[in-house]
Amino acid sequence: MNKPLRVLYFGSYSYANPRNAVLIKGLEKNGVTILECNDRSRSFVVKYIKLFFKYLKFIGKFDVMLVGFSGQEMMPLARILTRKPIVFDVFTSHYMGYILDRKYFSPQSLRAKYYGFIDRMSCRLADIVLLDTQAHINYFVKEFDVPLRKFRKIWLGADSDVYYPIEQAPRADGDFSRIVFWGNFIPLQGVETIIKAAKILENKNVTFYMIGKGQTLPACEQLSNTLGLKNVQFLGWVGHDDLRDYISSADICLGAFSGSIKADITIQNKIFESLAMHKALITAETTANQELLTDGENCLLCKPRDPESLADKISLLLRDQDLKKKIADNGYRLFKEKLTEKKLGGELVQILEELT
User: Fold this and answer.
1) Cα(121)–Cα(242) distance, rounded to whole angstroms?
2) What does the mean pLDDT of the chain come to?
3) Contacts of 341 (CB under 8 A, 6+ apart)
4) What pTM did the predictor assign?
């Protein structure tokens, strides 16, 4: 029998991020031995020092190092510490997230130049770089001039210990329909498109539950107030159990709608979580979504930044229960066939074995 693959997970990654939780569970479900060298100190100097000394006990005990998300700043230390193969789960670009999407700094600023440099340099230091979609890979190749041969695609998936189908009691006749959105209120989500769609549907028997906080929340609340909406509830952050309850009670789950470059080339957590919970999903028609999803089969796709298109898709599912069931059934089937931790972990094992 071959010796189990030994992977040293390295960096300042957090299990609270679904990307890390899914990949670690997936590797374990495929018989991989996971060793962890992790430090989440706030100071980078302290973090580097602690990681250096923690690493010493793992020398000679692993086959491949995997630098977890978020790890751009961890890659220089990782490369100094080992000559073993390094797989880097970059998962997302600092430059694209902070500069292009959230617009925290000007593209001409020193911070923007730093983010572009650390994105490029960290990928070049790795032997293999993981991203979630081919569209995302194409962006990195073009924007940061990293060779295409370095990249491998691993879907995001969802934590099946948290997100799974839950049987719901039958609804009373005349009960209102529930539309649920959850996530960070950041530009890529396009929450203002949802608010405007809610205005179009304000005379329907439907309530929109908006779960989460973030950069655009004040503007979205103001927009809702300006439009005089009574069918939108902003709930803030909720715990995993409460979130699962809201999703399980939803008639329709919503994805992201902004049409920004980040929205176009990535697939958000909530999309995988909706599929995992056997829910009918509506999200924007994007390059990345069309790599995984099929309109009318396992989701409905609407035009980005188009409240009328979103409202039309919501109305379609509310009046066509057979279509809603078909989309939910096929979405869940897609999740079970391609997106479980075991499946994604198996694909990652094949990638790791390229280096051993």
Assistant:
1) 40
2) 96
3) 22, 25, 26, 29, 157, 159, 160
4) 0.96
